[in-house]
Write the structure tokens for this entry.
Amino acid sequence: MPEGPSILFMKENLQPFVGRKVIDANGNAKFDKTPLKGKTLLEIHTFGKQTYLVFNDICIRIHLLMFGSYSVDEQTKPDKSLRLALQFRKRGNVLLYLFCKSS
């Protein structure tokens, strides 16, 4: 299970994306990802085991659960477990994976 230090490490790895514009968002997360396109990532916050990606008028809460993971600039897991992929202008991708059964 991802713990506090690994969540802070994730925040540090995602910090270079702050100020960058999202050019594409996809994945099997159950929310509409189209509003993310064209938005600029303003801040990244953590609270306990949760990470928040703050955009102009949208905030995404990330909780990696028991076996979740993330990747920057490389796809490390199968497509079917890809919950959210954010492609940024001028600097690669952020890929979020969750290995849990959705109901």
Q: What stands out?
A: Residues 22 and 88 are 4 Å apart (CA to CA). Residues 4-97 form a domain with the N-terminal domain of MutM-like DNA repair proteins fold (CATH 3.20.190.10). Helices lie at 4-14. Confidence is low (pLDDT under 50) at residues 98-103.
